[in-house]
Write a structure and sequence with these properties.
With 656 residues, the protein is mainly beta. 10% of the residues lie in helices and 45% in strands.
Length: 656
């Protein structure tokens, strides 16, 4: 840690020593008010402080800025850049009126700009409020006068019936006043305010006038440049900054020779400087003399004729693909034929790692890389070197073999979309849809998020493999995709509902199978319905073209009308014909009924037989009894049944 601090201190000390050894002069400082010195209220104003410094080094010197308003410091800042200092005054008010100056200090030198006055017009309307507006005699009320949005030192004036009765100086935008009303009636109260910009004072009369004569110092700088005319690039310039008619003085004398903002050299009595003339350098030279607080400046303008122009680097062809050959041409369009032969110009092509030199043609055949690359061309002649602007070569990427895919699903007989896309390739890319090598349509893809989409319709499943796609982004032959390979969904058709067992053989207790079958591409969603029910009896999705709904142990309640529906990814709903199911009695029930009926018949037959037999046997017995009576046989009539119609129901005993 101690070693690090020591190194840091050493570096800072070295930097300060180098900075202290640098020569510089403050040439000028100005303050401007933007957008104007006369603005209206609420304008955003910027104070720009611009300093022109001539320094012997490339880095900007540390400087301290100070901004004054009416001789009062309002802002200061230390900067290490040569950029202008900007001080904003947002939404200016009348209180911002004043004279502004900017001061710069670098080491022991300082300079202050001329004063610029800012004028702001417009004040907000004052607002007067009372804590109450209906009062009694001798009652005290409070009034508040507000200047909306105003800043600075304000003077508020309160008026009663147009007569000023109170005034207050405050540092805010509002003031309060109390009123005591002793007279009955209506009173008109209002207020005004004033913004104090500068303290007003009473001026006296003018004093006597005294004339002061200022004599110019005889000492003055002289700037001499050789040669004085027809200067070409590469020639040597001899510049002399000297003091003529030097008089003895107690003040220290300093000479500064500058070119533009670059300080070339310094001295006390004479400064000599030699340099190579370049057309790109500013042609304004300045010899500045500083003696005490007096600064005298003499300037000269030098016009340098360009020996040759800065080269331009071009590429042919304008577009090139990776690993293709191209030609880079470096050329200076103009050169001074009276001083330079064309053969004296040489060109060099510079890359990041290598450089190529050409004598005078400036033509470089090279092979394009696989990535973006920067090239720079350098032209040289008679010790002058000029660079071209950087040319960035962005090799295009040849389009890769495209791939085809279907957006969503391909449904037979319905329009569907096909995407043709390459994984790599520089835009724009032209995609062409082919059907059996015959072009159908072309789409140009120019944006990274754009896609080549084609809409087609097929009527047979195998037609989808007839489509191909070609991708092309150059004059070469395009790249052809494989044939489109995608599943084709055939819409459902010919729905059937098969019943097992046969309709005529359906009985109670049987198991019923309702088999729904279709033609089309699975998966298929089947639904079985019974007329009278809105909800399906069963919903089943399967990868086959048929499936069934089973009803166990049929009963008479299962009798009814049934049908099925089917749908697949083609979203066409098909419905079968309706089937009427009539559940018949079970076989054992039929046998039981038949047996019962047969038994009933047998009983009736037996009854009839017995009846007839009993009737047949009863008639001879009666006749025999009557004979016996006639013959005097013993018996009683009274003992015979009186109801003859029912004699068959009785059993008549034999006479012993």
């Amino acid at each position: 840690m101690g070693l690090l601090l020591l190194l840091t201190y050493t570096l800072l000390s070295s930097w300060r020593m180098v900075d202290a050894q640098r020569s510089f002069t403050i040439r000028n400082i100005t303050l401007t008010i933007e957008p104007s010195t006369d603005v209206t209220r609420d304008t955003n104003v910027t104070l720009r402080c611009k300093a022109i410094i001539s320094s012997s080094g490339p880095e900007a010197l540390s400087r301290k800025y100070a901004i004054y308003k009416d001789s009062y410091l309002i802002y200061n800042k230390t900067s290490n850049t040569s950029q202008d200092l900007l001080y904003p005054l947002p939404e200016v008010r009348v209180s911002n009126i004043g004279e502004y100056k900017c001061k710069i200090t670098i080491k022991d030198k300082e300079m202050t700009s001329e004063a610029e006055k800012l004028t702001v017009k417009g004040l907000s309307k004052p607002l007067l409020t009372f804590n109450k507006t209906v009062v009694s005699e001798q009652e005290v009320v409070t009034a508040t006068c507000t200047a909306p949005g105003e800043t600075g030192h304000l003077y508020f004036f309160f008026y009663k019936d147009s007569k000023e009765i109170q005034n207050y100086q405050v540092n805010s935008n509002q003031s309060e006043a109390t009123f005591l009303f002793s007279s009955v009636g209506m009173h008109k109260i209002h207020c005004t305010y004033a913004v104090l910009v500068k303290t007003e004072s009473f001026k006296s009369g003018e004093s006597n006038s005294v004339s002061v004569s200022v004599k110019e110092l005889s000492i003055k700088p002289v700037l001499e440049i050789y040669p004085q005319s027809k200067i070409y690039e590469g020639e040597k310039l001899n510049i002399l900054c000297i003091i003529r008619e030097l008089q003895p003085s107690s003040e220290s004398i300093h000479l500064y020779l500058s070119q533009g903002t670059h300080l070339l050299s310094t001295g006390s009595i004479k400064v000599n400087h030699s340099m190579v003339a370049l057309a790109k350098d500013p042609g304004d030279f300045e010899c500045s003399l500083e003696i005490g607080n007096v600064i005298k400046v003499v300037t000269e303008k030098v016009s340098v004729t360009e020996l040759f122009s800065a080269p331009t680097l071009t590429m042919s062809p304008a577009e090139v693909f990776q690993k293709e050959y191209m030609t880079l041409t470096c050329k200076s369009e103009r050169f001074a034929t009276e001083r330079l032969n064309k053969e004296e110009l040489t060109y060099t092509l510079e890359q990041a790692t290598t450089s190529m030199t050409s004598s005078n043609t400036g033509v470089f055949p090279i092979k394009a890389l696989q990535y973006d690359f920067n090239y720079t061309c350098v032209a040289r002649a008679k010790g002058i070197m000029k660079r071209s602007e950087t040319l960035t070569v962005r090799p295009k990427v040849s389009v890769s073999t495209p791939k085809m895919s279907v957006v969503g699903r391909a449904v037979l007989g319905q329009p569907f979309r096909i995407i043709c896309q390459s994984d790599t390739g520089s835009l724009p890319i032209n995609y062409t849809l082919l059907r059996d090598y015959s072009p159908l349509s072309t789409t140009s893809v120019k944006q990274p998020n754009q896609q080549a989409i084609f809409t087609v319709t097929i009527n047979k499943p195998d037609e989808i493999s007839r489509y191909m796609c070609e991708a092309k982004n150059s004059n070469k032959e395009g790249s052809l995709s494989k044939r489109l390979n995608a599943a084709v969904i055939v819409p459902l058709s010919h729905p059937t509902l098969t019943v097992i067992p046969k309709l005529s053989e359906i009985s109670e207790g049987d198991d019923l199978y309702l088999i729904c079958g279709i033609n089309g591409t699975p998966p298929v969603t089947f639904k079985w319905y019974r007329v009278g029910n809105e909800q399906p009896l069963l919903t089943n999705t399967t990868n086959t073209n048929s499936t069934y709904y089973q009803i166990h142990k049929l009963s008479k309640e299962h009798s009814g009308i049934y049908y099925c529906e089917a749908v697949n990814h083609a979203n066409n709903l098909v419905r079968s014909e309706k089937v009427t199911i009539d559940v018949q009695l079970a076989l054992w029930k039929k046998a039981l009924i038949a047996g019962f009926c047969l038994l009933l018949v047998l009983v009736l037959v037996v009854v009839c037989v017995l009846y007839f037999r009993s009737k047949r046997d009863a008639v001879p017995l009666y006749d025999g009894m009557e004979g016996r009576v006639a013959n005097g046989t013993r018996g009683s009539v009274a003992s015979l049944p009186t109801d003859i119609s029912n004699r068959s129901s009785y059993s008549i005993p034999a006479t012993v």
